[in-house]
Amino acid sequence: xxxxxxxxxxxxxxxxxxxxxxxxxxxxxxxxxxxxxxxxxxxxxxxxxxxxxxxxxxxxxxxxxxxxxxxxxxxxxxxxxxxxxxxxxxxxxxxxxxxxxxx
Length: 103
Fold this sequence. Notes:
By secondary structure, the chain is an all-alpha fold.
């Protein structure tokens, strides 16, 4: 009987911990959102993952990755532009394709 009370006490402590940290509230909100969806998604688990991930605060690592992505996109665009310029310069010094085939 004492073992049963100890397990109940641990469960109650864990429940209070989840409640205090906001986990129960967040889970309830996501489950209510799923319940209220007019067209249920094919994967309830993916729905939960998406909505739980969206509500999580953004970590500094994620922000750094976003900044790096923006930088890399800018560099990529610059390289594409440079590539086009170099192609047009190169075209000035190469004979057209038709002349190459005739040779």
